[in-house]
Each structure stands twice: as structure tokens, then as C-alpha cells.
Amino acid sequence: MQIRLFFLPVAALLLTSLLGSLCAEDKRPNIVFVFSDDHATQAISAYGGMLANIAPTPNLDRIAEEGMRFTRCVVTNSICGPSRATILTGKYSHKNGFFMNEKTKFDGTQQTFPKLLQKAGYQTAVIGKWHLASDPTGFDHWDILPGQGSYYNPDFVNAEGKYQVSGYCTEVVTEKAKEWMSNQRDKEKPFILMVQQKAPHRAWDPAPKYLTLYDDVVMPEPDTLFDNYEGRGIAAREQDMTIDKTMTLGRDLKVKEYDPTDDFKLRGYGRMNPEQAAAWDAAYQPKNDAFVAANLSGKDLVRWKYQRYLKDYLRCVRSVDDCIGELQEYLEENGLAENTVFIYSSDQGFYLGEHGWFDKRFMYDESYRTPLLAKWPGKIKPGSVNSDLVSNLDFAETFLDIAGAEIPDDMQGASLVPVLKGETPEDWRKTHYYHYYEYPGWHMVQRHEGVYDGRYKLMNFYDVKEWELYDLETDPKEMKNQIDNPEYADIAKRLHTELESLREQYEVPENQLKDLSNVDMHFHSESILKRGLERKKRMEEAAKRKGKGKSKGKK
Ligand code: SGN
Ligand code: CA
Question: How far is residue 503 CA from its own chain's centroid?
Fold first, then answer.
């Protein structure tokens, strides 16, 4: 009896500790990575700028207030698919093989951080825009938008196939993210969840609830809205991305009367249900009627286009900001906030009328820089601002480091974990290498590579044999190419040498053209051609339909 009494507590103790170790919770932090498409820092109030008071982003700002805001996060190649491929692999385009959006497929058999995180015992999930042509690999859960995705009643693709969901894309993706965290994941394991929004990508279709947001505001114009590209080279002059010439009144700016190809109806409007379409018409038609009646031209027309463009863009951003708020709230309400690293970024920046442009691709600041905000309770000092040269090249390494997993030697960036903790290593990069390849193609931006040291930027538009050099301290808007200015000769020389050494460090192939011959270089122009022909066909069909309508009317 006495013996039994003695053993009972001992056995109980042993049992509890055994159970305890079996169920030991994995305390490694979760990562929620919210990623948007084409979101410029100029449209996040935490970054200041002329839109900060007019179109504030309180939820994004809260990440900055409670965490860290990076002022110099720059991309390796300012375009969607290539940026995503860089993030997955921690490598430049010439190493991961995804140079251009239009290249056929991302090679999903290569090493990526999600695969390594899986090996380290993390659950991995991606929801929303993917845009890499091949199916995701390395994810326990994937539920993606096919191609560019749609704003209204979007299609999704997962391992089982394609299906459609009713609603507005940004809201649907947010709901899906919460649903995965609530009901679909294994709650014993730490996770990384990538919530990848289509917004605010072209053609900037706002959510039903924000269709009239900012209607009563006049947006300020950037001083370079009517840039004449004097003082810069052929690449800046000859692009195809101006609000004036490239942006369409029909599909881009939602004036149906100006859509001879029915492009808008076929792509955006055509997906709406009657209720959504009615809300849309109620919001846009009166403004469109006034626009048609005003019969604008010249600079007045550009100004009108800019207003419509920027408001729609900012309406889309508003939904992204809501997504951030909802996810933060979800994490807080479910006891996850304390042990989750919350990161926000975009695939690149964007022009909001600067230089008269929309779109991206150039190494000029508005599209080279991308937002990066991170919150990590207990690790990041709230309200910190970091101006180190960081890049999407560092994201894979950072995620692995947060998880305590090993970072492979062949990844080309560096973990941001010490930087997040306010302890940037002495040997942190002092210069950054950039390379854009997609030419000929959408928006016709010449291929170029370059180097940036946080103040000076040297760019080489090698196909047209032009170099550009900017001093961002004295010329933050990059209006004056200093390459031929003798006062900048030493700087140019230093940056040339640096560019060479970065090419060596990252093993950039010597001969761009030769090396790109393995890449499906002509695919891009063919696809544009195909799209052109499709557009022509639609135009003809629309003309036929209109013809029929007319003859009916005449009878
Ligand atoms: C589409 C857009 C382009 C945009 C590319 C790439 N045209 O082709 O304006 O530059 O995507 O964007 S659209 O008429 O289809 O809207 S990216 O973000 O995917 O790189
Ligand atoms: Ca993009």
C-alpha cells in the first residue's frame, strides 16, 4: 500500500512530462506575408508624400507604427513574374530562369524557400495572385488566380482544378486566408501564409463599396506629369506607358463610350453580375456623361485621365488596406498576433503619373523601389525606420532565418533578421544590382541593367548603347542624366567598376543576348501579336454586332 502510494505521484509526473514532450508546441514564429501587385510607396501614407492626407492607409501605417518601415527596398527586376521568382528562390532572374512575364513557365523543380520551409516542419500556403505559369510547388495549400486574375467574381485554380467565386477579388482572397488559418491548417505546426493580392494592378477596378470614394476630391498632380524627357535618353522618350498616349479611355478609364473594341465589357465589366454592373453604372455613368459633354483635349484631357486613373488606383489600394486590417484583427482575436511575423510588400513600385507614366519596369525610383513593412512583436522596435539597401532578393533568406532553417549558399541575398532587430551587419550590401529584360513587349521599355548605392544610380540601356547617371540627393526625381557631366566623372567611374564587380559576384552571363538565346525571347512579341489579332477580331465582331443593332433600329 505504502509502496503504491509512493509510486502513484511519480508515475503521474512521468506521464505528464511524456505527454508534454509529445505535444510540445512548436513555438517557432508564423509568417504572414501579404503581397500586392503594383503598389507604389507613394500610395501608402506611412511613406508620406502628397497623397498621405488625401488617401490614408491606416492599417498599413499600423504595421509601420508597430514595426519597421524600409525606405530603400528595391527589386532585382521590376516586373511581376520575375519579382515573384526572385522571392521564391532568393536569386536573380539569370539564376532562376524567369526573366520575363511572358516567358513560358517558372521551373518549379528548382530549390525554393517554401520547399525548404516544408522540410523544416513548416506548413506553407499561397492564396491569390501567382503569375508564374506553372503550378505552385512546395506548398501544402495553394489556391491561386489563373494568370493575371480578375477583379470581379474571380476564377481560382487549386490542385483539383478551376472554379469561380462570387465577390470582389481582394475581399475573396482575404476571406480565403482567414478560412485557411481557421479551418484548413494543422494547428500543431508553425506556418507561412502568402496572401497575394491582384490589386492595385491595371485596370484598377474598385470594389463595389468604394466606387465613389474620392469623388469629391481633386488629386494633386506630380510636377512631372507633363515631362518632356529632356535630359534623359531614348528609353525614357520612346516607351509606351504614358497616361496621354497609352492609357485607354475605354477599359482603363471605364468610359464605355470610348471603348470601340468592347475590351472593357469583355474583360472587366463582362464578369460582373447584374447587381455589380448596376452599382458600377450608377457610379461611373454620370461622371462619364459629364466627361463626354466636356469634350476635353490636350493637357486638359491628360489631367482628366490622371484624376480618373489615380482615384481608381487608390480605391483598389483602399481594399488592400482593409485586407491588412482584417488579417491583423484575425491574428489578434485568435491569439496568433504575438507569435507571427507580419510582412507587407509588393512585386514592384509603380508610376502614379510621375514622368507622365503608369506601369513600372524602369530602374527609376518609383518602380525600382517597393514597399516593405514588417511587424514582429518583441523583436522589432516599434516605429523604426530603416534606410539600408534591402531587396526582394533577401525575402527567401529572411523567411528561412525566421524559421531557424538553414540558408543555402547559392541563394544570392541575405537574411533581414538582424536588420529587423536593429543590428544591421557591418558588411551589409552598399550597392545593389538591377536587370530588366522584357523588350520588345508591353510598354516597350528598353532592357537595362544598373547599380545603385543609395545615392547615385548608374543605368546601362545596352541595346541602344546609352548610359544614364543620376544623383538622387540633388535630383530625386531623376530628371537630369549626369553621365556626360565632368563633375560626375569620378562617380561614374566608381559605379562602372562596381557594376562590373556585382556582375561578377552574381555571376551575370557576359553576353546578354547570347545567354538569352535559351530563353524564349520571341515568345513575348508573338504573344503581343496574338493579343493584337484577338483584339482586332473582337473589334470586327463588335462592329458587326453594332451594324446589326443599327439595321434593327432603322427598321
Ligand atoms: C498586363 C497589363 C500591362 C502590364 C502587364 C504586366 N496590360 O499585360 O499594362 O504591364 O500586365 O503587369 S493589361 O491591358 O492586361 O492590363 S505585371 O504586374 O503582371 O507585371
Ligand atoms: Ca506587378
Answer: 25
- Total residues belonging to the chain: 555
User: Could you tell me which residues come within 8 angstroms of residue 209 by beta carbon, excluding any fewer than 6 positions away?
Assistant: none
DSSP helix/strand/coil, 62: helix
Residue nearest to atom 7 of ligand 1 (CA): 202
Cell numbers representing residue 19 in the block: 505527454
| Statement: residue 9 has pLDDT above 70 | no
- Average pLDDT of every residue of the chain: 90
Place of cell 533568406: 397
Distances in Å between the Cα of 494 and the Cα atoms of 353, 432, 479 are 32, 14, 21
In terms of Cα–Cα distance, which of 198, 248, 227 is closest to 353?
A: 227
> Atom 19, ligand 1: which residue's CA is nearest?
80
Residue with cell 492607409: 57
* Contact between residue 412 and residue 92 where contact means Cβ atoms under 8 Å apart: yes
201 C-beta closer than 6 A to ligand 1? yes
User: Per-residue pLDDT for 175 more than 90?
Assistant: yes
Ligand nearest the Cα atom of residue 532: 1
Ligand whose nearest atom lies closest to the CA of 252: 1
Residue 103: per-residue pLDDT: 60
From residue 406, alpha-carbon distances to 27, 86, 126, 400 in Å are: 17, 18, 22, 7
Cβ partners under 8 Å of residue 119, min gap 6: 405
Q: How many CB atoms lie within 10 A of CB 488?
A: 18
Total H helices, total E strands in the chain? 16, 16
> Cα–Cα distances in Å, from 74 out to 183, 347, 353, 379?
36, 10, 20, 23
How many angstroms separate the Cα of 541 from the Cα of each of 270, 318, 528, 554?
A: 16, 37, 20, 20
Q: How far is residue 476's CA from residue 349's CA, in Å, rounded to a whole number? A: 16
Q: What is the distance between the alpha carbons of residues 197 and 209, in angstroms, rounded to a whole number?
A: 18
- Residue 262 pLDDT > 80, yes or no? no
Atom 16 of ligand 1, nearest CA residue: 202
The pLDDT of residue 217: 98
Report whether residue 145 contacts ligand 1, using a CB cutoff of 6 Å. Answer: no
Which of the four pLDDT bands, split at 50, 70 and 90, describes residue 542? Answer: low
Residue whose CA is closest, atom 17 of ligand 1? Answer: 80
Nearest residue to 435 (alpha-carbon basis) of 155, 79, 28: 79
> Candidates 36, 132, 202, 204: which one to mutate for ligand 1, based on the most atoms within 8 Å of Cβ?
202
pLDDT given at position 537? 62
User: What is this structure's pTM?
Assistant: 0.90
Pull the grid cell for residue 496: 562602372
Burial 418-452 (b: 16+ CB within 10 A, else e): ebbeeeeeeeebebbbbbbbbbebbbbbbbbbbbb
Q: Which atom of ligand 1 is nearest to the CA of 37?
A: 18
Query: What cell does 312 get?
Result: 481608381
DSSP string, 147-194: TT--SBS-EEEETTEEEE--SBHHHHHHHHHHHIIIIIS-TTS-EEEE
* Selection from 20-34, 423-437, 524-538 with the highest mean pLDDT: 423-437
Residue pair 174/156 in contact by the 8 Å Cβ criterion: no
